[in-house]
Design goal:
The protein has 477 residues and is an all-alpha fold. It contains 22 helices and 4 strands. Strands 1-2 form a two-stranded antiparallel sheet.
């Protein structure tokens, strides 16, 4: 006689666990809204056509108490407090936390401290900040350069002026980051730029955890921690403490990369879509992601047909295409606004971006070196020289990254630097290199311990210099 397992009771562990997890998350959100309303006065917003008002802290506190009571009636053990304590202790002893958290906090907060000190000690070139959103320097600290464009999108949305296509317009900036700025600002008293800074810092902290996990799959814990430290102290990592897209883009790239490697498709697709909606060059991530999918089929110099046919990996290739889908989604919106889906590309000419080709650009720069001499060329424009060093580092890394980690990460490096040089010269090349995590994996793996420490020290010193330039309104790009 075959015995069957007894039917699970109504309050089975699996079902209760899901209910408990959901109610605990709801409780945490309500507590966060309560604190926000008590400190900032709350907010009113429109969500999917419905008006949402959170202006009374005691109402959200009362609702949190009701949810908490029902949750403990449903399953009193483990309590919310016990789960929170257990989660906190697990997070503290997690090797990923130990390998990332100290350097993340030190560098991201340190950059802001250096920037504020530079404002008082060095000052602005014209004696005042070109953009002011607050009276005090602390409140005004995130208002730097392109952060103003994200501010306009987060507060007023996109604008298009068809008779001013030769001038800078905010359609060139992709929507993921300003959208997070807008919704995050509701919790911090409508401080939109500080919301963007917090989004960047939290995104970088999350990205550092992904990088550490990825590195541990290829090397030991010490080298994994070194990769995070090299990334966090990189001179152009200053943008990870600013209301800029670099940190969110890095998180999208690393999240997609990590999950595609592990064949975790939904997570890989979601992070890839975020990357594609964050920066114009995000769509290029689809190419190396596709190479990750196809790499096992490349044998003896040929691309082998999958055992189940090409249809058997079509879903994996769809995941790899997610960044491209993100770009197409934004292009569809731009088409609705302008009638041209790629107007966001054409408008970039107003920033001085013209496609002259890598060879022609480098030939012109070489001629400048020959005419001025290397010393005069390097010192005539220090920010450009820093961008040159960043581009040189990536160029040197491409071949060893290919040999050590494969064709996909090497392709990622080439795709993010060569088009930038072809269309904008040294403009923003340093920012483009700050998210190229294979470079930091290679450095952590190739350098002996004493040289890794020296590299971190040199990087950190240059990042302090970059922070002084950036926060005192001296162009870094």
């Amino acid at each position: 006689m075959v015995q069957t397992a007894p039917r699970a009771p109504r309050n089975s562990v699996g079902r209760v666990s899901r209910v408990v997890a959901a109610t605990d998350v709801i409780t945490a959100v309500l507590v966060l809204l309560t604190v926000s309303a008590a400190v900032t006065g709350g907010f009113r917003a429109e969500v999917l056509g419905a008006r949402l008002s959170v202006t009374s802290w005691w109402r959200t506190a009362l609702l949190a108490a009701v949810v908490l009571t029902l949750r403990h009636w449903w399953q009193p053990s483990p309590s919310v407090r016990a789960r929170a304590v257990q989660g906190w202790r697990a997070w503290r002893v997690d090797p990923v936390t130990r390998g990332t958290w100290p350097v993340v906090v030190a560098t991201r907060v340190g950059v802001l401290v250096v920037g504020l000190m530079a404002v008082y000690a060095v000052g602005y070139p014209q004696g005042r900040a070109p953009i002011r959103v607050a009276e005090g320097e602390v409140g005004n600290l995130p208002a730097r350069f392109d952060a103003g464009w994200y501010l306009t999108i987060a507060t007023h949305g996109y604008e298009y002026f068809p008779n001013r296509v030769d001038r800078q317009q905010n359609l060139v900036f992709f929507p993921a980051f300003p959208t997070l700025m807008h919704w995050g600002s509701l919790l911090v008293g409508r401080q939109v730029l500080w919301s963007g800074t917090l989004v960047s810092m939290l995104a970088f902290a999350w990205a550092a955890r992904y990088l550490y996990r990825l590195a541990r799959e290829m090397m030991d814990d010490d080298r994994a921690a070194a990769a995070v430290a090299l990334l966090a102290t990189y001179p152009f990592a200053v943008f990870f403490s600013a209301a800029y897209t670099e940190a969110l883009f890095l998180l999208g790239m690393l999240g997609a990369w990590y999950h595609v490697r592990r064949d975790e498709r939904w997570a890989g697709f979601a992070w890839g879509l975020i990357a594609g909606l964050t920066r114009p060059n995000g769509c290029l991530l689809s190419i190396p992601l596709a190479l990750i999918v196809l790499a096992p089929l490349w044998q003896h110099g040929r691309l082998r047909r999958p055992p189940g046919g090409w249809a058997s990996i079509s879903d994996r290739l769809m995941v790899a295409a997610a960044p491209g889908f993100g770009m197409l989604l934004y292009s569809a919106y731009v088409y609705e606004v302008t009638g041209d889906p790629f107007m966001w590309i054409r408008l970039q000419a107003a920033w001085g971006r013209q496609n002259v080709g890598v060879a022609q650009f480098l030939a012109g720069e070489w001629q400048s070196v020959a005419q001025q001499g290397a010393y005069q060329y390097a010192t005539s424009n220090v920010p450009d020289f820093l961008n040159i060093l960043a581009a040189g580092l990536v160029a040197v890394a491409i071949v060893p990254v290919w040999r050590r980690f494969g064709v996909a990460p090497a392709t990622l490096l080439a795709l993010n630097v060569l088009p930038s040089l072809a269309s904008g010269g040294w403009l923003s090349v340093g920012r483009a290199t700050s998210v190229l995590f294979p470079v930091f994996l290679w450095l952590a793996d190739a350098l002996p311990v004493r040289y890794r420490i020296a590299a971190v020290a040199v990087f950190a010193g240059l990042q302090v210099f970059a922070a002084i330039l950036f926060f005192t309104w001296r162009p870094l790009f």
